[in-house]
Task: structure prediction
Amino acid sequence: MPRTTAADRAHGFIRDEILHGRLAPGTMLSENELAANLSMSRTPVRAALTRLQDEGWVTIYPQRGALVRELTDQEVREAAEVRHALETAGVQRATPPDRERLTASLSGNIDEQTQALGRRDFAAFTTLAMSFHRAFAELAANTVLLEIYDRLLDRQQLSIIRSSQRIASDPDLVIQEHRALLEQARRGDWAAFATHLADHQARSHGLESG
Result:
């Protein structure tokens, strides 16, 4: 098992804080404060921030700190378009037994989404919603397709966090849309699924529909 370094631990901590919305876009991160909070020197923190900048999470400003970067509309749109294609492909390629199994497994997921939104637990909702959408891509039973989908999970999570106020303003609509998507997938109506998914993404993320 590879040895975990202090820089790895700092990277994992900061990235997790960003992904869960505890370090909001626009937050200026201080090497000194991070090092103190993590009980380590500034050197591994600096290495972690450099790696996060390379990955697109922060922008480093010398002598000032590292600014948590916000996804642009274009980045959200492009990631949504790729996920749309992969989820639709899964529904299109699924067999009837696969679709029935999907319905059985995701019905409970939607109930949990409803409960999470009802108690305003947005972190739990985000995890459930990501699992819900990934399940459609899984229907394709294509490992390469899923590898591509999983490369977008971080951006998907940030997109949902970015849209949390919009989603929370009308949680019933989100749940209704998820139920409609599941029903269209159950029927194997991939064309209707594709249209509804595009509208759902546009509304959820505040993007203009194509």
The first helix runs from residue 6 to 19. The mean pLDDT is 92.
